[in-house]
Design goal:
about 50 residues, mainly beta, two-stranded antiparallel sheet
Length: about 50
């Protein structure tokens, strides 16, 4: 069986973003995995 993977946005160092492929996490006893459908971002604090 193939491992299910996920494309994620990472921040490897300040002011740098990169896409990476990571395996889906596995929930341990007493924990759950929550799938996020939408993650809105407020951009009113932009600095020009």
């Amino acid at each position: 069986m193939a491992t299910k993977t996920n494309t994620v946005l990472t921040i490897p160092e300040p002011r740098t973003a990169a896409l990476a492929t990571k395996p889906y996490p596995v929930a341990g006893p007493g924990f759950v995995i929550v799938e996020v459908a939408v993650a809105p971002v407020c951009n009113e604090g932009r600095i020009y």
